[in-house]
Amino acid sequence: MRVLIVDDEPLSRRGVRARLLRFSDISVIGECGDGISAVEKIRAENPDLVFLDIQMPGLNGLEVMRQLDQEHLPLVIFLTAYDEHALSAFDVQALDYLVKPIDDERFYVALERARALLETSQRLRSAEKMIEVLKGESSPYATHFRVQTGTRIQIVDAENIDWIAAAGDYCELHVQGRLHLLRETMRSFEECLDPARFIRIHRSRILQKSRVMELRRLENREFLITLVDGSEHRSSRTCADRIDSWLLGRNRH
């Protein structure tokens, strides 16, 4: 969590910094002593959380908030010597407010609220960004796949896939020595992958053509295909024509 401290009182800034230094996952990216420099710093550094004093010279804390892009506001915990400022603080979407002198327990409760909200919003933004990537491609074929394990979402580039194998209701994506499971059918994979780059050699196998190192002819128009990762895959007779067409195309180049 990247934190900015804004307060015109140096002693107050030191107190907030000292409390934050107890946490290894928090980085204090700077301090400001007035509202004008605070606006500039927030715009330039885009902190996750700002501890913001309400009463300051130049611009007060509420005015600082109103100067910022309302769609990209950081989380804000207001600092104030006057409890009556609380309602005004929440009017500008503050996460919380702390009355000076700051109570340690109250400080850590507010910090944990910020931490929990930031984690949730980051996960949401990450997922939304991934979905935008997946939907925003101009190619008719998939260039990325989203693999979710619990709360983790990974993006697998199609160009990094070595081969795909059927595994019951799932498909195994073999990617540079790693295995990812995705609940899809082989047919759906075959339809969404670029045929110029991938070839189905068996009802349970799809290979990336660029990973093929060797093909050995067997009986019944079958092949034993070796990939650069050392794995071997036996093709089926029903896929012989497409393999022959691919090989013929390669021989022409």
Automatic annotation (TrEMBL):
Record-annotated Response regulatory domain positions: 2-115
Alphabetical list of PANTHER family matching this protein: REGULATOR OF RPOS (PTHR48111), RESPONSE REGULATOR RECEIVER (PTHR48111:SF69)
Protein name (record): Response regulator of the LytR/AlgR family
Keyword list, A-Z: DNA-binding, Phosphoprotein
Example GO molecular function: phosphorelay response regulator activity
Residues recorded with modification 4-aspartylphosphate: D53
InterPro entries reported for this sequence: CheY-like_superfamily (IPR011006), LytTR_DNA-bd_dom (IPR007492), Sig_transdc_resp-reg_receiver (IPR001789), WalR-like (IPR039420)
SMART domains per record: LytTR, REC
GO annotation, cellular component aspect: cytosol; protein-DNA complex
Domain HTH LytTR-type: 145-237
Gene3D superfamilies documented for this protein: 3.40.50.2300, LytTr DNA-binding domain
A GO BP entry: regulation of DNA-templated transcription
